[in-house]
Design goal:
heterodimer, A: 189 residues, alpha+beta, TATA-Binding Protein, 6 helices, 6 strands, elongated, B: 144 residues, 6-stranded antiparallel β-sheet
Chain lengths: 189, 144
């Protein structure tokens, strides 16, 4: 009987702890990005005016099929988002799509595709892009653009399964190449 | 047997009621003055526009995506998610306001929430202002 008493006391303590599930300390910390990530996310462009680079950036976001959530002109902030089907992203995988899906599904959890972390048939990915385009501080006629992307894997019950910031330099390289092409298509020399 | 049932019932009640509060936190918690001191820094190096530029750069650097920005009111709001494990994601939402003060001073105030709780942990604000100090310095030195 005393053993049962101890067991139920332990159970009661577990209940207290479970009832107040704590937030990990790391969630409060704000470590800065590394220099290499910052460099990969940033490019400088030489164009005749700020309007040229902003128009090309808006067109780029549309080319990549994002909807705008906020645009703030003097601050040069363009934020957009889109939701995509995880399966179709893998099927139509370009570099961007493949990186986002595969890293979300396997690298974060350290599990190979096909393991328990693999996306289900109905999983979706929310992508949020922030692009900041501003006149360069040190050279006139140059504009710097920095892009950051957050991806969230959502399961079929609409619960957020995984979240991460995209850091793959090849992906940003691909986006900046698209921005150069966008400037060309807009007739900017 | 009835004692076991009683203990089980108590366990369930404690697990369910563990963190419940009677009334919602409508007006915020903590001392108004203390909160402001923790969240505010004054700068006398850059004007409001350049300070806002530095704030945007800082938020991007710290992994926030920008949700909204208003240069007239000097407000910028961003969101950052900390991923611990599957289905354990913690969302931090931070609003930063930049206001011109007397002289050439500019005050920057950051306030953040982590999921449903206001952040009173000084570490968060120390990390933010340490990164902002660096960004302000780089802007002053005209480094992009």
């Amino acid at each position: 009987m005393p053993q049962h008493g101890r067991f139920f006391s332990a159970l009661l303590l577990c209940g207290l702890v479970a009832g107040c599930e704590s937030i990990p300390e790391e969630a409060y910390w704000l470590p800065p990005s590394s220099q290499s990530v910052r460099e990969a996310q940033t490019r400088t462009f030489e164009v005749p005016s700020e309007v040229n680079i902003l128009q090309a950036s808006v067109a780029l976001m549309q080319d990549m099929e994002y909807n705008f959530d906020t645009i703030e002109y003097p601050l040069g902030v363009l934020s957009g988002s889109k939701t995509v089907d995880a399966d179709s992203m893998l099927r139509n995988a370009g570099l961007v799509a493949a990186d986002i899906v595969l890293s979300l599904l396997s690298i974060v959890g350290g599990t190979a595709p096909g393991g328990s972390l693999y996306a289900g048939a109905d999983d979706e990915i929310n992508l949020t892009v922030t692009m900041v385009v501003l006149p360069s501080l040190d050279s006139e006629g140059q504009y710097s653009a920095r892009i950051t992307i957050r991806s969230e894997l959502i399961d079929k019950s609409d619960r957020v399964k995984k979240v991460r910031m995209i850091e793959n330099p090849a992906l940003y390289q691909e986006i900046f190449e698209k921005l150069s092409k966008s400037l060309f298509l807009e007739g900017v020399k | 047997m009835s004692r076991r049932l009683l203990c089980l019932a108590m366990f369930i009640c404690v697990a369910i009621m563990g963190c419940a509060t009677a009334t919602p936190d409508v007006t915020g918690s903590g001392s108004q003055l203390q909160t402001r001191q923790l969240q505010t820094r004054d700068y006398d190096t850059l004007d409001k526009a350049k300070t806002m530029r530095s704030v945007v750069a800082t938020l991007q650097d710290l992994g926030f995506t920008i949700d909204s920005a208003d240069p007239t009111l000097g407000t910028i709001t961003g969101t950052r998610v900390y991923y611990e494990s599957d289905y354990r994601n913690f969302t931090m939402r931070m609003t930063v306001t930049v206001r011109e003060q007397e002289g050439k001073r500019v005050s920057v105030r950051a306030n953040a929430r982590l999921d449903d709780k206001a952040i009173a942990d000084p570490r968060t604000y120390q990390d933010f202002f340490a990164a902002l100090d660096k960004a302000m310095f780089l802007t002053l030195q005209k480094v992009d």
